[in-house]
Design a protein that fits this description.
alpha/beta; Rossmann fold; GMP Synthetase, Chain A, domain 3; 2 domains; six-stranded mixed beta sheet; 9 strands; binds guanosine-5'-diphosphate; binds magnesium ion
């Protein structure tokens, strides 16, 4: 196909919303490859992460942001700062809400930030999870979100899980992005290195299997990532927790829990990378790491 760069659109889209509304699921669905960690429990996305969609119309670079919430921990505060700074770098904002529920306190917090931004970039809204709700409640909640976020440029009802209206979402975004050539090579889907994605997938598997037992006290460090030719990749990683009791839970009886986490994570990493993976996990205690600057830096939550 002949491409004319003048007709192409491209831009950065900040994807913002309360925890658990489906931001990461939506980005994954739009891009079609799993890169953003998704979990039924909030706060899986801890760092800013790019998802890159390239089509004949141009390139959309989604910035997956951690949620906005109470800065109770230092980590929480850092996530807030990150969400604010994303706004300065974006060409459009995609606010994602869970339309199966009425707005909560976090949606209000977000509305304050988004509606007050002075750069007047386009604001689109994804009213997500329409598959969970009947039309009457949907209309009520829709009206409540419209009141909270007046004057949005487009409002699209989506189901990230069923893939509903994602095409509408993509074309609405393209319409509002600046003209110009793509920023990234067309086969690139994320700015993260494979080992960072692997670390996210291990964390996601851990949160999934542990449920609420070790809430958000887990950090992952990739200790080794070696290519072994035909035999795939060898990955060794450490799961850091804050307390001895948590370490016991992570390892489980006869190492059963750690084994389950490892199997789930290995399958996801193999799906993502298209090759065989040998994954070795261990658990270690690093006391109170969420309030310790040095640890936050070690786990990649600080910029430099
Ligand atoms: P994030 O915190 O906003 O990034 O939310 P996630 O993408 O991690 O999703 C949170 C939970 O909502 C996960 O269990 C998803 O499977 C689920 N979810 C996301 N989108 C939809 C949707 O359109 N419909 C339904 N039923 N569930 C969804
Ligand atoms: Mg997320």
């Amino acid at each position: 196909m002949e491409t004319n760069n003048d007709l192409l659109r491209n831009g950065f889209v900040a994807v913002m919303g309360s925890p658990n509304v489906g931001k990461s699921t939506l980005i994954n669905a739009l891009i079609g490859v799993k890169i953003a960690a998704v979990s039924p429990w909030p706060q899986t996305t801890r760092k800013r992460q790019l998802g890159i969609l390239t089509t004949d119309s141009g390139q959309i670079v989604f910035i997956d942001t951690p949620g906005i919430h109470n800065p109770f921990h230092k980590l929480g505060k850092h996530m807030n700062e990150e969400a604010h700074s994303v706004l300065d770098d974006s060409d459009a904002i995609l606010v994602v809400v869970d339309v199966s529920k009425p707005p909560n306190e976090e949606d209000q917090l977000l509305a304050n930030i988004v509606m007050r931004q002075t750069r007047s970039i386009p604001i689109l809204m994804a009213l997500n999870k329409i598959d969970l709700v009947d039309s009457e409640i949907l209309e009520d909640n829709n009206a409540a979100y419209e009141k909270l976020f007046p004057n949005t440029d487009a409002r699209i009802q989506t189901s990230a899980i069923l893939g509903e209206n994602l095409d509408v979402m993509v074309s609405s975004l393209y319409e509002r992005l600046p003209e110009g050539p793509p920023f990234f090579p067309e086969d690139q889907i994320t700015d993260l290195y494979e080992r960072e994605i692997a670390s996210d997938l291990i964390r996601e598997a851990a949160l999934y299997h542990l449920r609420d037992e070790v809430p958000h006290s887990i950090a992952i460090r990739i200790d080794e990532f070696t290519e072994r030719g035909d035999r795939g990749a060898y990955i060794a990683a450490t799961l850091f927790v804050e307390r001895d009791s948590q370490k016991g839970i992570v390892i489980g009886k006869n190492g059963k829990m750690l084994k389950q986490i490892g199997t789930s994570a290995r399958i996801e990493i193999e799906n993502m990378s298209g090759r065989k993976v040998y994954l070795k996990l261990r658990a270690k205690v690093r006391k109170n790491w969420r309030n310790d600057e040095a640890s936050l830096k070690l786990f990649g939550f600080r910029k430099s």
